[in-house]
Amino acid sequence: MAWTAARRSARDRAAVAVDQNAVPDPSLVDLSEAQLVARCLDETPGAFDVVVERHRRSVYRLCYRFVGNHEDASDLSQEVFLRAYRGLRRFHGGSSLATWLYRITVNACLTRVTAKAPPVVSEPIEGLRHPADTRTESPSERLLREERAAQVRAAIAQLPAKQRAALILRMYHDMSHQEIAQSMGGSVGSVKANVFHALRGLKKRLDGGR
Predict the structure, then answer these.
(1) How far is CA 132 from its chain centroid?
(2) Which listed site, 97, 111, 120, 192, has its alpha carbon 20 to 30 Å from 23?
(3) What is the set of domains in the chain, with CATH numbers?
(4) Residue spans of alpha helices (H) in 17-138
(5) pLDDT digits 0-9 by tens, 7-49
(6) How far apart are CA 79 and CA 160, in angstroms?
(7) How distant, in Å, are the alpha carbons of 56, 82, 159, 166, 168 from that of 27?
(8) Cα 146 to Cα 175: distance, rounded to the nearest angstrom
């Protein structure tokens, strides 16, 4: 039994270890979400690679916002897709695949951050998001922007886990309260409360505790 479980775990991990240089199967790339999920459940070779390719950037960015460094974010992203691969039969299309993956990601991130001390956030991600925005900046303006961004990242890292999750999804992923509620498995009211308290806590930390 233990050997079988170990063999399955190795197989599952291999299935989600997507080669970044691989060329996706053209017959799978343009499939609808429902068709792609069906191919995954039929164990069509390369089908889950397409799922990962479609969503890996958004999952990675969400992981990064929680853990604050690229190495841990990569490890956590791999864990998210492993959970998704193993649990895909439980996806029934009640929400989008992206929302379902966000929920897995939030749960994985909450488990990680509650088991560890708050991260020391030192590696920026903003430069990857808006590279064109910095072209007209002077060196002093860029320095001030990066210092302020580092302060915001550090302050967010100190928020309670659920407040951090709600704020990250709202601020950085532009999700509605309803979408956040679906991703976090709570009510819209609780999401609004978490965002409100997160913003208040963030302001307090950025103002130096005043």
Answers:
(1) 23
(2) 97
(3) 1-119 (1.10.1740.10), 138-210 (1.10.10.10)
(4) 26-29, 33-41, 47-67, 70-87, 97-115, 126-129
(5) 456 556 555 554 545 566 778 888 999 999 999 999 898 899 9
(6) 22
(7) 20, 24, 45, 37, 35
(8) 25
